[in-house]
Every structure is written in structure tokens, then in C-alpha cells.
Design brief:
The complex is a heterodimer. Chain A is an alpha/beta fold. In chain A, helix 3 (86-94) links the parallel strand 5 and strand 6. Chain A has an eight-stranded parallel barrel, surrounded by seven helices. Chain A is globular and about 40 Å long. Chain A has helices at 32-41, 63-72, 86-94, 104-108, 111-120, 155-165, 186-193, 209-219, 228-231, 246-258; strands at 5-13, 16-21, 24-30, 47-51, 77-80, 99-102, 125-134, 139-144, 149-150, 169-174, 200-203, 223-226, 232-233, 238-239. In chain A, helix 6 packs parallel to helix 7. Chain B has a single domain (2-202), classed as Class I glutamine amidotransferase (GATase) domain (Rossmann fold). Chain B is of the alpha/beta class. The two termini of chain B are 14 Å apart. In chain B, the strands form three sheets. Chain B has an eight-stranded mixed beta sheet. A three-stranded mixed beta sheet of chain B has the order 5-6-10. In chain B, strands 7-9 form a two-stranded antiparallel ribbon. Classes of the chains: A alpha/beta, B alpha/beta. At the A-B interface, helix 2 and helix 5 of A face helix 1, strand 7, strand 9 and helix 6 of B.
């Protein structure tokens, strides 16, 4: 039985790990390699690492850091940040990363996704769709460059387009829910889920394991990603890397399937 | 000495790190000369089938590999696309495979999939070993491994299937024909199960 995936998402800023709220107020939470070592011990399903400086500052991906992370990771690693070309994708895969996440680069030049899939295979190309809700009543819109630029694009339409172009996974990230721990945006997830048959990983808002349980109950095979949930503990948000045990994960999945 | 075939694709370092941690001698092979002292070979692979075949052809190691695998019968473990390359051909591309095993690589049929998620087959799945003495020894009750693929090896002979998995259909996730072994999942990214499997491979005799 294929299982849903529970994925810690780590953000890199100035060489350290941070956690943001609404894509701003970065709070330092630790050293990337140290975090990977702890997540190895906890046997996480997958790990996602996003460099939130690279695209915004027009920088190359930090290949040295990526290589170090990939060497250390005993679980599949997805890297995102600053990826704009097929050569970059190939170089990152060559460092031992399983999946490359592309966000702003895919919106700016959608053909990048088909070129990258032809080279690396669809299974290694993930498209990150950052979404913000504007207006009242709200309309969900794709945003780029760490949520600073609007695109007028509909998230479901972009997901559909990216599947046609050859992407292998959609990572749907709610900017509004980022760091709030107030639950996933289920309405947004529903609209994108219906638009694509690709593996879907959702990020933004997970505040408890029951949020993840609810997601699995509704969608079965899905990637449940979270930042704050897996790096903070307690109401004062003390930094403490945590992740459910294998038994707890199995029980959560079992429970969600029975209901 | 285990040689990880480094032709520019796949996570060669992850394999090497695991073997180093286990205290098993390992080397990254980038040329035919690097392969000479290898008792065991690991052929990793990520990416599109034709691209992977081209990179292996360009590496200059192909002739030596054929000799070591088919004539000297040294144990070889293909991983993911590396396993697929051991077959005759793939629906993903036009290039011929290595032809080491009687199998063709096919795309999963999406009509059998019940979930809203179809392809790629991505994540942790159960693996049911047919024989538990060699590659799948000491893996406990419910071994699970990480998969990331849309194509699978369709073996022409069930006798060479070492383990099955299920994704809408039953498929061979591990094969063995004498010294030639392949796994569709990623042992190098499958925590303690993967480490045990790679350790088992190091003990396989040709």
C-alpha cells in the first residue's frame, strides 16, 4: 500500500534555517546540516529544502550547501530556490538530489518544465505554486518571488498547465497560512486537487497532526508538508525538531482511512 | 570493493556514504580503469531512459561492464532507472537497454489507479519478497521502500522476480537472474531497510 507522505519543509536564508510567517519575519531555527541529521534519526518520509534568497536576489543555487545536504540525507530530498535553467536542474540532480522544485522560474518561462522533464525525467521535477488570496470575497492567485509579485494566474489552471508540460509533482503553498499553524487551506487544496492527477504536496498552515489526519482522510495519497509543526514545540514556539514515530504515523494513516 | 558506477546520474554519494558507514570498502568508478578491482557493482540511475543510456555509453565503461557482468559474473545491483536499463528496451524512449535481463520497461496503466493521484508512483510502499535469504534477508516484518517512477520492469519470466509491489497492479520491484540484481525503489534513501538491503548486496556471491 502506497502511503501518504509527511514532509518537513525547511527554509534557508543567509545560510541558516529560518521559519517565516506569511513569507516574512524569518526566525532563525538552526543549522541545515544539523537539522538533516536529526530528521535522519526520525526517519522522515521526505525532506524539502527551499532557499528563499536565491530567486529574490537573482543568485545561483548554493551548490556546495545542496551537495552537503544530499550527502547527509538518508531520505529523499527535494531542493528548490533560484532554479531557472535545465543546466541548473541537471547539476542539482547530479549532486544527489531526488527532486528539484521550480517556482518563479516555471511561471516566467513554462517551457523550462518540459525541457527539464526531458532531461531529468518528470519524476524529478516538482513545481511549487505559491498562492495568496486577494480581495473580498477572496480570489486565489499565484504569486512569485517569495510572494512579492502577483501574476493574475489561477492556481488550478497553472497546476493543469504544469502537468501537461511534464511536471512530476505539484507543491501547493499557501502564503496566507504560512507559519500560522491554523490548518491547511482546504478550499484551495480542493480546487487544485481536481485540476491535476499528479502527486500533490500541500504546504502552509499545518498546526497539528490532526490537520494532517484530516487531509489524508479527504485525499488519501497526498504529501502533507509542514514547517512550523516540525520545528516548533508548544505555544511559545520553542525551537525543537520533532516528527511522529513510525507507529504514530501508521496509526494516523490507519485512523484516517477507517473514518 | 564495491564500485558505484558514476556516469553522471543518480546519487552515487549516498551509496558510498552508506557503505563507508558500514565499514565496507567502496569506490566511485568514473572510467573503465576504476572498475578493475571491483567485486560488486552498483548501477544507479535517475532521469529519462534514453538520456541515462547515452550517458552510460559516453562514460566509456559499457564494454567493461558487459564483460564483468556477463562473463566474469560479478554481482551487479541496478537501482531505479539503473534496474530498467538492464532490460531490453523501454516505452519511455527509443534507445536499446543493456539487455542483461529478459524484460521490457513499461509505463504504469493509469486506469487501475483508484486514488486521485496517478503518476509518478511516489512515496513509501510495501515490498513483498519472494525469497528472503539473499537481498531481502533480515528486513523484518513489513519492509517498505521509497519509490519514485512512472515505468516498471515487466519481466518475461516470473522466476527472476525477487520481490513484488503493488501500484494499481502487481509489479516486479526487485529481480535477480544469477549475479544480476535490480531494485526499482531507492535503497539509498530508504532508511534502515535500505541500509540492510545494501549490506545484503555486499554479501551476495557471483
Amino acid at each position: 500500500m502506497l502511503r501518504p507522505r509527511m514532509i518537513p519543509c525547511l527554509l534557508v536564508h543567509d545560510g541558516g534555517l529560518v521559519k517565516t510567517v506569511g513569507f516574512s519575519q524569518p526566525k532563525y531555527v538552526g543549522d541545515p546540516l544539523n537539522a538533516v541529521r536529526i530528521f535522519n534519526e526520525k526517519e522522515v518520509d521526505e525532506l524539502m529544502v527551499l532557499d528563499i534568497d536565491a530567486s529574490r536576489l537573482g543568485k545561483e543555487p548554493d551548490y556546495k550547501m545542496i551537495g552537503n545536504l544530499a550527502n547527509e540525507c538518508r531520505m529523499p530530498l527535494c531542493y528548490g530556490g533560484g532554479v531557472k535553467s535545465v543546466d541548473q536542474v541537471e547539476r542539482i540532480i547530479g549532486l544527489g538530489v531526488e527532486k528539484v522544485a521550480i517556482s518563479s522560474g516555471a511561471i516566467a518561462r513554462p517551457e523550462l518544465i518540459s525541457e527539464a522533464a526531458a532531461r531529468a525525467g518528470s519524476q524529478s521535477i516538482a513545481v511549487v505554486i505559491d498562492v495568496k488570496v486577494f480581495g473580498d470575497p477572496g480570489t486565489a492567485e499565484v504569486v512569485v518571488m517569495n510572494g512579492t509579485q502577483r501574476t493574475r494566474l489561477d492556481p488550478a489552471a497553472v497546476a493543469e498547465q504544469m502537468q501537461e508540460l511534464g511536471a512530476g509533482e505539484i507543491v501547493l503553498n499557501s502564503v496566507d497560512r504560512d507559519g500560522t499553524m491554523s490548518g491547511y487551506d482546504m478550499e484551495l487544496i480542493g480546487s487544485v486537487r481536481n485540476a491535476t492527477s499528479l502527486p500533490l504536496t500541500v504546504l502552509g498552515g499545518a498546526g497539528s497532526m490532526s490537520d494532517i489526519g484530516q487531509l489524508i482522510k479527504q485525499y488519501g495519497i497526498i504529501g502533507a508538508a509542514a514547517g512550523s509543526l516540525f520545528v516548533f514545540k508548544g505555544k511559545f514556539r520553542a525551537v525543537l525538531i520533532n516528527y511522529p514515530s513510525r507507529a504514530d504515523k501508521d496509526a494516523l494513516i490507519e485512523g484516517a482511512r477507517k473514518q | 570493493m564495491i564500485a558505484i558506477i558514476d556516469y553522471g546520474l543518480g546519487n552515487v554519494c549516498a551509496f558510498a556514504n552508506i557503505y563507508r558507514r558500514l565499514g565496507i570498502p567502496v569506490t566511485l568508478a568514473r572510467s573503465a580503469a576504476d572498475l578493475r578491482d571491483a567485486s560488486h557493482l552498483v548501477l544507479p540511475g535517475v532521469g529519462a531512459f534514453d538520456w541515462a543510456m547515452k550517458r552510460l555509453d559516453d562514460s566509456g565503461m559499457r564494454g567493461v561492464l558487459d564483460e564483468m557482468v556477463l562473463h566474469q559474473r560479478r554481482p551487479v545491483l541496478g537501482v531505479c532507472v539503473g534496474m530498467q536499463m538492464m532490460g531490453k528496451s523501454s516505452e519511455e524512449g527509443k534507445a536499446a537497454g543493456l539487455g542483461w535481463i529478459a524484460a521490457k520497461v513499461r509505463r504504469f496503466s493509469e486506469v487501475h489507479l483508484q486514488s486521485m493521484t496517478h503518476l509518478p508512483h511516489m512515496g513509501w510502499n510495501d515490498v513483498e519478497a519472494v525469497r528472503t535469504e539473499s537481498l531481502f534477508a533480515e528486513l523484518g516484518n513489513d519492509p517498505r521502500f521509497y519509490f519514485l517512477h512512472s515505468y516498471y520492469v515487466d519481466s518475461e519470466d516470473d522466476d527472476q522476480v525477487l520481490a513484488w509491489s503493488d501500484y494499481g497492479q502487481r509489479f516486479a520491484c526487485a529481480i535477480q537472474r544469477e549475479n544480476i540484481l535490480g531494485v526499482q525503489f531507492h535503497p539509498e534513501k530508504s532508511h534502515s531497510w535500505g541500509v540492510q538491503l545494501l549490506k545484503n548486496f555486499a554479501g551476495c556471491e557471483g
